[in-house]
Design brief:
Blueprint: H1 14-31, H2 38-45, H3 49-55, H4 59-74, H5 83-100, H6 102-114, H7 118-126, H8 129-141, H9 151-167, H10 177-188
Length: 195
C-alpha cells in the first residue's frame, strides 16, 4: 500500500497525523525552530518516532505541511465584487496569519531557516502556500487579460511588502492593507483600452 506521500507502508492514521502537525506548531512557538526535534515532536504528539519517520523525513517537512494546511484555511477569504476590497481582505488575513497565528510563526521560522539551509529552501520553493493563496485572490481580482505582469511577479508584488514589513520587525498596525491593495492594482493591472 502507498501512503499520501508515496512511501510504501500502512496508511497513516489521520488522528496521529493531526497530532503531529499540531505538535510541531506548538513546539516551534514554545522552543524555536532550532530546538525542535523529531523525537520531541513524536513525544508531544503521543506517537512513536517510527510513526513520524514513516511519513516525514525532516522537521521542516512536518512544519511546512502544518503551516501550509493552516495557511490555506486562514488565507481563504470570501470573494468580493470590488478588487480593492478583495485584495484588502486578503492582505488583512495575511498580516494576521504572519503575526498572530501559530502556523504563521512556524512559516516565518521556515523562511528564516531557508536562508542558510538549502534543503529547507528547496522545500519552500516546491510548496508555497502563500504564493498559491495570493495567486487565487489575484486571479479573482484581476481576471485574464487584466493582469499586466506574470503571476509569479504579481504574487511577489502583493505579498512582498507585508513580508518585508513583518520579517524586519516593524509594527503590523502601521501597515495599511487598503493602501497596499490600491498600490498593487495600479502597478499590476493593465490600463483600460482607450477609444
Amino acid at each position: 500500500m502507498v501512503s499520501e506521500h508515496g512511501k510504501v507502508g500502512r496508511p497513516r492514521s489521520e488522528e496521529a497525523r493531526a497530532a503531529v502537525l499540531h505538535a510541531v506548531d506548538d513546539l516551534v512557538v514554545e522552543l524555536g525552530y532550532g530546538a525542535v526535534t523529531l523525537k520531541g515532536i513524536a513525544q508531544r504528539a503521543g506517537v512513536s518516532r517510527q510513526t513520524v519517520y514513516r511519513w516525514w523525513t525532516t522537521k521542516a517537512e512536518i512544519l511546512l505541511e502544518a503551516s501550509a494546511t493552516d495557511a490555506l484555511q486562514e488565507l481563504d477569504v470570501p470573494a468580493h465584487d470590488d478588487p480593492v476590497d478583495e485584495l484588502t481582505a486578503y492582505l488583512k488575513a495575511l498580516i494576521a496569519f504572519l503575526t498572530t497565528s501559530d502556523a504563521g510563526a512556524a512559516y516565518r521560522a521556515l523562511i528564516g531557516e531557508a536562508q542558510h539551509d538549502k534543503a529547507v529552501r528547496a522545500l519552500l520553493s516546491d510548496t508555497d502556500p502563500i504564493g498559491s493563496s495570493a495567486a487565487a485572490v489575484i486571479g479573482r481580482a484581476l481576471p485574464a487579460g487584466v493582469l499586466a505582469i506574470p503571476m509569479s511577479q504579481a504574487t511577489a508584488l502583493l505579498v512582498g511588502p507585508v513580508f518585508f514589513w513583518i520579517l524586519s520587525g516593524r509594527q503590523p498596525r502601521d501597515l495599511d492593507p487598503g493602501e497596499l491593495a490600491g498600490d498593487f492594482l495600479r502597478r499590476a493591472a493593465s490600463p483600460p483600452a482607450r477609444s
